Amino acid sequence: MSELFKNGFKASLTEKESKWFMSKLSLVGQFDNYNMICEVENGRLRVIANTNYDHLDKWDDKDIDSIQQSFRHVRFEYDGDGIATTLKVSEVKKMTYNGLESHLKEFIKMLKKLKIE
Known about the structure:
The structure is a single chain. This protein is of the alpha+beta class. It has helices at about 1-5, 60-70, 90-95, 95-115, and strands at about 10-15, 25-30, 35-40, 45-50, 75-80, 80-90. A hairpin with a 2-residue loop joins strand 2 (about 25-30) and strand 3 (about 35-40). The longest helix has 17 residues, at about 95-115. The radius of gyration is 15 Å and the shape is globular.
């Protein structure tokens, strides 16, 4: 994770103005021209591409599933801030930065195939 700081990501506190939620530390930056938010939650690293995915409502579920199947090891989920991919923190700890970067590149390829910008 420290490598993300070296590649332009900055620390940010979320929910710092909320009286209902505790603040949590996130990393915010850009990867391949996508604004990204990285946060650890429930033992998983969530990387959220801050995007608009409204057009996916018009897509057939089979088309979305087909694209996801072509990227077997990279999964996505909908998030209020965009589209997210997750990895177990235990797996991330074993990765080199190049491994994480490779996963993010595949995630970006999937977003582009889904026409998410």
